[in-house]
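Can you give me the bound-state structure? Components:
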Amino acid sequence: MSNDHRPPEGRHDERAFVNSADSHVVEPLDLWQERLPARLRDRAPRRIEQDGRWVFLVEGMAPKKMGSPSDDESGDADGAGHFRAGGFDPDLRVGDLDEDGVWGEVLYPTIALFGFLIPDPELRWACARAYNDWLAETFASASKRFAGAAMIPVHEVATAVDEIERVAGLGLRSVMLPMHPPPDRPYNLDVYDPIWAAAQDHGFPVSFHVGTGASPWTERGPGGAVINYVEVGLGAQRNLAYLAASGVLERFPELHVVMVECGAGWLAWVLERMDEAFEEHASWVKPKLAAKPSDYVRRQGHVTFGNDASGVHNRHFTGVEPLLWASDYPHPEGTWPHTRETIARIFADVAPSEQAAIVGGTAASLYGFER
Amino acid sequence: MSNDHRPPEGRHDERAFVNSADSHVVEPLDLWQERLPARLRDRAPRRIEQDGRWVFLVEGMAPKKMGSPSDDESGDADGAGHFRAGGFDPDLRVGDLDEDGVWGEVLYPTIALFGFLIPDPELRWACARAYNDWLAETFASASKRFAGAAMIPVHEVATAVDEIERVAGLGLRSVMLPMHPPPDRPYNLDVYDPIWAAAQDHGFPVSFHVGTGASPWTERGPGGAVINYVEVGLGAQRNLAYLAASGVLERFPELHVVMVECGAGWLAWVLERMDEAFEEHASWVKPKLAAKPSDYVRRQGHVTFGNDASGVHNRHFTGVEPLLWASDYPHPEGTWPHTRETIARIFADVAPSEQAAIVGGTAASLYGFER
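Here's the bound-state model for the whole set.
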């Protein structure tokens, strides 16, 4: 069993208890064709051949190019290069983690990141449940080192609450909501209170992965690939402001919210900016929170980062608890298989206790990682 | 003449040469009724009484509440409290600057910030020219300590180039473009090259003030005042990515671009984020810049900040040249009349040469401030 693996470093140094707050599974391409109710299977997200090329279809989205059938079929589902087999095989994955010096991982999807965009509620929910089932069976049940984040669409709040209850029973340990909610129902509205309450009751951190709930490819002109990568990070900044300034974090004081794959270097600015408006524009501020917006984020908000050092450099402004290191395994922009070198570089001047919290200790508290 | 004033501190310490890269004038409420061509005067931006309240009208925008006629009429044009008379009187203004330890200022508008949103091109251009004329006559001609930023709409590129030529002759020293360009013509398109070329030729920094070109009040629900203040800062981050990643800064290597009133604490993150996409997603990156996107920003990009310290803390990541301190006089969220205390706090641990560059030296180079 994967459970028997031990981290390669000793337990005496808490800095060696490294947990990635953002890693990805790679779903089998036929997951939804295999698992959807029979009446929905011909509408399942799936790979097809079109004009001599593989494309991946998700209802309501433009077909996504995946290379040609003559290519290796190892699962280039998001066009980001060929993924490690650890993306779908938990035992191989544990081997990769051990080699890289990582103990636990919070698991996010690859293809299912786009499932929030499926317009039809029945199909959207069926796809979410199928993904959550697969994630629980494949990873959550394989090792306590895997904390799965269930996919929870938010258009239908009561259904979302039901699914949170259901995935708690499956052994998943977190819920993932779309970074971009439906445009007519932003996250500052109290319609979502039952979702926050359910997550809080189960001790589930609520996470928002960049690029979910709206197309992450809004700019297709010059510089688009770079611009869009910045833009999805702006979504995380906006989201944290919505949740703090509107009073969601105040009303649900045990709720933790996590912005995922957005980096951390902007956090000090968002905190300062929110507080400046809260104090200097006080006559327009509603609701009047009992504390500054930044106080709620320091207590209940978190952001994940990998290679970028400025967020750690700013910990004096943000506090240490909001910062969660992440490998982004198996993505090319992540730290795998060079996690040790990356951590050594980023934390060169950081106190051991602070490093321990950021690279794994805080994630262990949030997601229940134990060695 | 205002020119005769001397900064209160001696010339021996360059840290005492403080120049604000973002300050505001407050236009007379009848500026456009006085200065527009006769045929447009009844459509001029103006204050009227409506249902017993003052409102300010700008064609194409919702009326803006300004208090009741029984209030003091000193010019509460943006609802942000009563402004100092230095907003429209250059001699009183110089007195305020001297008391606060500030030498030069880059001047941005108050009411005219919303002039970019006037839908009709003829009226929009007439309003811009009237503002530019007033700014030049009132402030640019009064003292070399005032560097006026001309308002330049961008819908009609040839007209914009003509206006840049015209304001150069009026003694204005910078141009202000809308932060949000027309939605169908983002700043990564080469249609704007004549504007960049004209600004570069005149040595005019091109600035983008937060909240211009699109309504800055997008969120009106819970937390809106705080959320919107964050959101306008996101516009600055996006804009810098557009200008760097698309190659604008590469094609115009002497052009300087300035994001105004957005704070600086996010800049390290934008630089790291752009470079990560540029390097790790290289196969999708167009154009292939000769250097990393961050290199162009370090050379040609700038951001203004006032009270917030995290941007200065990150200067190791961003370089010192992009950072421009600003008072935001006479706004309540600015540093006036406590500039000395604010600067002492923010720069407590900063080398004197770095402080000198950030509080005034770089602005002096960009905008031509001389003592």
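A couple of observations. The first strand of chain A starts at residue 19 and ends at 24. DSSP finds 13 helices and eleven strands in chain A.
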